[in-house]
Structure formats: C-alpha cells, structure tokens
Write a structure and sequence with these properties.
By secondary structure, this protein is mainly α. The chain has 5 helices and 4 strands. A two-stranded antiparallel sheet has the order 1-2. Strands 3-4 form a two-stranded antiparallel sheet. 29% of the residues are buried.
C-alpha cells in the first residue's frame, strides 16, 4: 500500500481521536466539540456529494484498502480538522481567547477562517490532486489553473470559499447556546 494512502488514513483517524483525547483532558470545550461535529457534517455534505457524482466527476487514483464510504468519512474528519484549525488560528492571529471567538459577527474572524479555507484547499489540491485523486473537468466544473500537466478544477475551490462562511455562521449560532448545563 502506498505511503500516501497510509498517511491519509492515519491523519483521518487521528483527528477525531485527538479531539476526543483533548476533550477528556478538558482542553476542548463542549461548544468546541459541537464546532468539530459541525465541521465534520459540513465536510460530509461535499465529500458524499463527490461520491454520489461518481467516477465521471471524481475518482481515486490509488487503491483504497477499505470499503468506499470510509474514504469519504476519513476526508470528512480531515475537513473537521481543517475547520477547527481555522478556528484556533483565528484566536492566535486576533489574539483573542477561544471563549471570546465567534460570539458575535466579526469581519476579521470571517476573513481569517475564509483565507485559511482557501489556502488549505490550494495546498491539499496541489499535494493530492492528480496523485491520490482526480477531478474530471466539466462545463460546470471547469479547470481554473494548470500546473505542469496537472489541471485543477473549480468545484473544490468554490466549496472551500463557501464552506468556511457556513461554518462560521453556524458557530455563531452555536455560541448562543449554553452547553455547560448539559
């Protein structure tokens, strides 16, 4: 099995395990667990859409050793990790305690998580598209850039422009709930 598939599985498995471990150590709050679950659910919407669209839209270029749903679940955990990475990065960049993040609409918070989503999407696509997976260009999923001989389509870039905004808005709503009494 290719080392990239092993690394993909290892990270996709480690992310939820690490988050549960940090929650057990009380390093992660109940609201942050709900943020993580939110990121996972947002990820499943586009990961399983990709699966639903089938090989005329997207295919995995390497042999995946497990049943196919695990590929998309694994990447949904990756997505949750990326969303939470953006959340924690927002606190670091804005020098705000995490308890004060996402409590009210702040363009700076939205900008950080949005830029994070776009940058990480580009990095992930440049490191995996054409190697581990491949998007098929279509009229509604055009090529937006070609690097060397590898073409990159617009779909996943649009996903990572829109999904951090959705994540942020949902997290603002979650912050209004009190999870300490549950």
């Amino acid at each position: 099995m290719d080392w990239r598939i092993i690394a993909d599985l290892a990270v996709g498995t480690a992310i939820p395990l690490l988050f549960m471990f940090l929650y057990a150590l009380r390093k992660v709050t109940g609201q942050e667990v709900v943020f993580f679950i939110t990121g996972f659910l947002i990820g499943t919407t586009f990961e399983f859409f990709i699966w639903y669209m089938g090989p005329s839209f997207f295919y995995v270029r390497m042999e995946w050793p497990l049943p196919w749903p695990t590929y998309y679940l694994c990447h949904s955990f990756w997505d949750a990790g990326l969303f939470m990475g953006g959340y924690y990065l927002t606190g670091i960049i804005l020098k705000k305690p995490y308890a004060l993040l996402y409590t009210h609409f702040d363009w700076r918070e939205l900008a950080v998580i949005s830029i994070w989503g776009i940058v990480t999407s580009c990095i992930v696509e440049l490191s995996g598209n054409g190697i581990i997976w491949q998007y098929i260009p279509h009229r509604w999923n055009p090529v937006w850039i070609t690097v060397g001989k590898q073409s990159y389509t617009l779909f996943i870039q649009v996903v990572w422009i829109v999904s951090p905004v959705i994540f942020y808005l949902i997290c603002l709503s979650i912050r209004k709930r009190d999870f300490s009494k549950k």
